[in-house]
């Protein structure tokens, strides 16, 4: 039976969390309480969450932050840090930690009003997080809007030619303003500023991570991952959109700590899938995959060989049965495995399929994503060139992926 002293301690612990949450949710973030206390010179693992939420997702950031805090149980030799930038709240670097059976929120930096879509700020925050809590290994969760590899302003480019719907059942004919549809996170956006993938890769080039997770829409595409391949060992993301409630932050510390590698990442993916697969209606929508970056260059080579060895002209591909992951009128994010199967001969496609199996080490998807049936799921999207989107076509021509595989000539 618990003693009065134990009950009092539990009560004080709970009340301390409530008070800290109240301060956070009202935007009253205090200055740092304590510096990081190094257990043995270095932490085992440092996980930074970068929440670029000075946009339409501002309130969702607050909800996710609440989940992070209420679900936090952080080992002494691990560090969890959260950069959060919300509308009219300013930006802060916060460290939740458990000390003496109490939860503390240490505000390490108060940045004031900043542009969290600025790659220089991301680089600064990553460096400060490492200076504050140096570790044996590092992880990064990038939280914001996302449109995959597409440069600013090209998501939903108006097609140059009339679009023929893929199916008579028209799963893509929908009213985006219909309240029956859940909101999605449509990497970073701050006001009118966006961070493009080339800038993101440059910002992180001096800070290698064990893994990078994209809690943002449409980020699991080969054009993005090819450019990010040197930034980390693993990438977690969704080739489709992500419902705006995002990752399972209430389970984050339980699945990621103590960190030991691949098993934690697959547990995070399981938790993501389970979160959305348990829902009903349109909210039962989730796609997630885990990619091992060391095989991305081999995947690029096999795709290059596939299109070079008698590959079909993209204009000749019948797209009516091809799996798409976006809800655009002219689709941009297609399943890479099905795309490869329609382009190359059987031998080259077989080689590609083998490398793809080594690259995508985890993949799960619900039966649909809102209105999109998920009939074929490889875990990665790819662009299939089309002249109906001239600006998108030109942007693809300049990607490092296309520059290597030589699909569209300069």
Question: How are the secondary structure elements laid out?
Answer:
Elements: H1 4-25, E1 43-53, H2 58-70, E2 78-86, E3 90-99, E4 102-112, H3 119-132, E5 135-143, E6 189-190, E7 193-194, H4 197-203, E8 209-215, H5 222-228, E9 232-237, H6 252-256, H7 262-277, E10 287-292, H8 296-308, E11 334-335, H9 336-343, H10 346-359, E12 360-365, E13 368-369, E14 372-373, E15 381-382, H11 390-397, H12 400-405
Parallel strand pairs: 1-2, 1-5, 5-8, 8-9
Antiparallel strand pairs: 2-3, 3-4, 6-7, 9-10, 10-12, 11-15, 13-14
Helix pairs in contact: 1-2, 3-4, 8-10, 9-10
Structural class: alpha/beta
Low-confidence stretches: 1-20, 25-35, 163-176
DSSP E strands, number? 15
**Rg:** 22 Å
How far from one another are the termini? 75 Å
Quickly count the helices: 12
Average residue pLDDT? 86
CATH architecture of the domain at 24-150 and 184-292: 3-Layer(aba) Sandwich
Helix and strand string, N-terminal first? HEHEEEHEEEHEHEHHEHEHHEEEEHH
Largest sheet: 9 strands, mixed
């Amino acid at each position: 039976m618990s003693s009065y002293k134990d009950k009092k301690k539990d009560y004080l612990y709970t009340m301390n969390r409530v008070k800290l949450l109240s301060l956070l949710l009202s935007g009253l973030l205090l200055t740092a309480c304590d510096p990081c206390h190094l257990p043995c010179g270095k932490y085992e693992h440092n996980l930074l969450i970068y929440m670029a939420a000075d946009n339409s997702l501002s309130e969702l950031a607050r909800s996710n932050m609440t989940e992070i805090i209420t679900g936090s149980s952080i080992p002494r030799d691990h560090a969890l840090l959260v950069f959060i930038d919300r509308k009219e709240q300013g930006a802060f670097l916060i460290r939740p930690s458990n000390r003496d059976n109490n939860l503390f929120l240490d505000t390490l930096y108060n940045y004031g009003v900043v542009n969290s879509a600025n790659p220089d700020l991301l680089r600064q925050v990553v460096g400060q997080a490492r200076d504050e809590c140096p570790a044996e290994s590092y992880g990064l969760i990038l939280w914001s809007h996302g449109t995959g590899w597409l440069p600013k302003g090209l998501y939903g480019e108006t097609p140059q030619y009339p679009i023929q719907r893929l199916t008579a059942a028209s799963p893509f004919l929908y009213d985006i303003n219909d309240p029956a549809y859940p909101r999605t996170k449509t990497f970073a956006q701050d006001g009118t500023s966006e961070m493009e993938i080339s800038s993101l890769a440059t910002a992180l080039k001096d800070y290698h991570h064990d893994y990078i997770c994209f809690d943002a829409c449409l980020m699991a595409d080969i054009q993005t991952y090819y450019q990010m391949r040197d930034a980390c060992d693993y990438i977690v993301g969704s080739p489709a959109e992500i419902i705006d409630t995002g990752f399972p932050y209430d389970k984050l510390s339980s699945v990621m700590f103590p960190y030991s590698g691949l098993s934690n990442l697959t547990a995070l993916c399981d938790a993501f899938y389970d979160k959305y697969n348990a829902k009903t209606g349109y909210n039962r929508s989730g796609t997630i995959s885990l990619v091992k970056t060391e095989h991305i260059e081999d995947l690029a080579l096999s795709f290059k060989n596939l299109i070079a060895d008698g590959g079909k002209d993209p204009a000749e591909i019948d797209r009516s049965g091809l799996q798409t992951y976006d809800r655009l009128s002219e689709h941009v994010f297609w399943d890479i495995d099905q795309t490869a199967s329609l382009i190359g001969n059987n031998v080259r496609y077989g080689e590609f399929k083998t490398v793809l199996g080594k690259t995508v080490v985890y993949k799960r998807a619900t039966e649909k994503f809102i209105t999109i049936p998920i009939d074929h799921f490889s875990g990665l999207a790819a662009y299939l060139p089309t002249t109906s989107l001239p600006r998108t076509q030109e942007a693809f021509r300049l990607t490092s992926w296309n520059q290597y595989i030589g699909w569209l000539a300069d």
